[in-house]
Design a protein that fits this description.
- The protein is built from one helix and no strands.
- The chain is an all-alpha fold.
Amino acid sequence: MIRQACSPQSIRPAGFSLLELIAVITIMGVLVLVVTQRISVSGVKAKAECCKQYQAELNRALERYNFETGDFPATLDDLGNSEYYPESVPHCPVTAKPYQIDAATGRIQHPAH
């Protein structure tokens, strides 16, 4: 068996150096920060899009009500659980406030958010 001479520089202890650990932890911290921020922003965007969808559905129900009766309902509660809007009238998912009818236009007022 041939033995090779090992120089002290070629022997490396097992494990990671402190510098390698700090680099990995820093990279992981940056990734967690970016992902967390993206998730929180996408949740707000999803709620805003859901609010727009609710407004469009309610406006279509108001138009059907107006077409058949010739007038707009006094409140949105008149639409809920009826042939015009078979489910209960939703609230804004962003602010949790109920939608209101604009008396001048007969459309849903956009909630402030």
